[in-house]
Amino acid sequence: MSTYHSQRATAALQKLIEFDPTFGSLSLWCLHRDATAEETLIVMRDAQGEASIASVRYEIAPAYTDGRVIYYGSQFERWNLEEQMAVCAHEILHIAFQHIPRARKLLSRFGTQYSRQIFNIAADALINESLTQAGYRLPQPHVSLNAILKDVLHSNQRADAALATLDVESLYVQLFDISEKGGKQALALNVLSSRLAPDVSADGKLSAEDELSSAEWQQRLDRALRSGASAGRGLGSISTRLGDIPKSFTPWEVILRRMVTKMVTYMPQYRFEAPTRRWLALDAEAQKTGHWSPAFEPGRRKALAKRGKVTVCVDVSGSISQSILARFASEIEGISRRTGAEIILIIFDHGIQLIHELTKHNLLEELNGLDFHSGGGTSFKEPIEEALKHDPSIIVVLTDLVGQFGPKPGRTPVVWACCHGNTETVPFGRVIYLSR
Fold first, then answer.
1. Tell me, what's the pLDDT at 13?
2. What pTM does this model have?
């Protein structure tokens, strides 16, 4: 590939900077190169970090990026100037929105459940809608957020409204779940993906350099959008409607792990009426030598550590996908293995269907082996009442949050793990979303 600045994209980049002030600085932080058809051996690493040699043809698409360099292939020249500007802006936003490091984070979290093709579709759809709203003319065919909402997600939401609420992680999870279920929606997704030439390369593991680069790009993007907003045109004019602007967030797995582990870990009980033997010895020595008495050290109770207990209530009336259930089950299993906590499984819809104590460290396998039916309404009152009978350290409810709530279960903490739903309806407990 060429190591010199792209000749193919020079005119489009110059026009882009004149048209949209936001890209004036963003484009300068990217390297622009002309791709060649040369085949090169490169080292690729999988989710476990294992290296393999792959033969890759550099000219894989009219334009593509590895997160640092944007490559322009020979087919880039077949578009007119306006379309070339949109393509340049599209690739710059892949870098500015940090889609490559974010893809690597998803790869490290989901492992075999990560799909490069679906991530590329999600990222392209959000960028294309952003550029359309900003007045760009995109070349045809391209992945449209409106088509994804209508044909794949079967949603009546308008694309401009969805753009403000969706980010690439949440859209990826929705599309991946659909591809796993199969059916007409998955077929529509396959049709969309067949039109897509992959333009994001995110192989390898997330590095410290990626983390540093992400922090720097957040600052660059913020400054560039403010510049565009003050000019009143281009991408900066819709900056408040961009839901995919990279933000620091803690994955739901980490939140769930911290909360449950904290509640099931035994904390020693102190006895302030009886000091430790060490304090008694130090105090006796102080009195003998005429020194000040040491700070009081309370003793510990000799009660045996209480084994932590987690009641997991699974709502089988909602639309919990198999892939989300598998990730949720994996986290619960991991917590059980690390802490030795007892897991009580409660299957419910409008009432209790089944109560089961987890005997192995494989929640998904045991869940699939149990006899219960799906469908019907939902009531959270009965499963929480049943959970309290087992004296749990914490109650975790896997649900879509559509149902009737009962009274607050005293001081026992409750975590609502949901894919979607209106959190305003939740009268108690902590809500974590599994859709990111």
1. 95
2. 0.71
Residue 304 pLDDT > 50? no
- Give mean pLDDT, residues 182-211: 75
Phi-psi region of 169 (alpha: psi -120 to 50; beta: other; left: phi over 0): alpha
DSSP-based three-state secondary structure for 3: coil
Residue 374 contacts by C-beta under 8 Å, 6 or more apart in sequence? 316, 317, 349
Please check whether residues 316 and 429 belong to one and the same domain.
yes
Render 275-302 in DSSP notation, one character per residue.
E-HHHHHHHHHHHHHTPPPPPP-EEE--
Dihedral sign computed on CA atoms, order 368, 370, 375, 379: negative
Average pLDDT over residues 379-385: 90
Per-residue pLDDT, averaged over 319-324, amounts to: 67
Q: What is the pLDDT of residue 97?
A: 93
Checking DSSP bridges between strand 414-418 and strand 394-399, what pairing results, if any? parallel
Token pair 């929480």 is at which residue? 384
**Separation of alpha carbons 157 and 159, rounded Å:** 6
Asked whether residue 74 is assigned to any structural domain, the reply reads yes
Query: Residue 415: which domain range?
Result: 309-433
Look up residue 72 and give its two tokens. Answer: 């322009």
CATH number, domain of 360, equals 3.40.50.410
What is the average pLDDT score of the chain? 82
